[in-house]
Amino acid sequence: MVAGTVNNLKTLKVELTRFMMSYKFALHEMNTKIDILKQEFHYIHEYNPIEHVNSRLKAPESILKKVKKKGYELSLPAIRENVRDIAGIRITCSFISDIYEISDMLQRQKDITVIECKDYIKNPKPNGYQSLHLILQVPIFMSDREENMYVEIQIRTIAMDFWASLEHKIYYKYNKEVPAHLTEELKEAADSATKLDRKMEEIHRKMALIKEDNNEEKENPLELMLLNERFALPEDFLEKE
Question: 152 catalytic, yes or no?
């Protein structure tokens, strides 16, 4: 009886470890994809739309709280299918157009399955919250199996992220019961953040046109002439010995 209980506990421990490990590997896969996109933009487009990338695994306690709140079955298969934000990545961009460009690039990757897309930028939440949410499935390859894991991606601008961070702090400071006047002020702040995003993007576009018009050829030891066209490699592209 005791031996059976010990074996059952060992089996449960292995299953729980594999369960959380799968999400860790899924985060690694998605972070690698995002890092490749960052480097591609840096070397090819001389512009990086990704300012910051943060990833996290939901703690077991948080998972259980969500399962209880939503009334899901308390089993690993049920949790895997219903709780789709256990692995999460937040991408912070400079401009709104960057959000949709990054989203499109991720969704076009052949090994990624798009499960859900919620656009809180075109359709903000009543409190003013804005962000683009994606639920994606990415394959991970273990020693004895292949598994398709859910990963939640949130993509937002710096202004959106700043507003969301402060709103979250205020929300918990008042124990989730924010006074009406503060709710109104938060909504006004969200509207101001939207105006700032749009204004900065307009300035960015104008600067891009100026740069294009004033683009002068400069001597570069990494420049190549191919088919009468001049190409310049980024200075940090080649590794120094």
Answer: yes
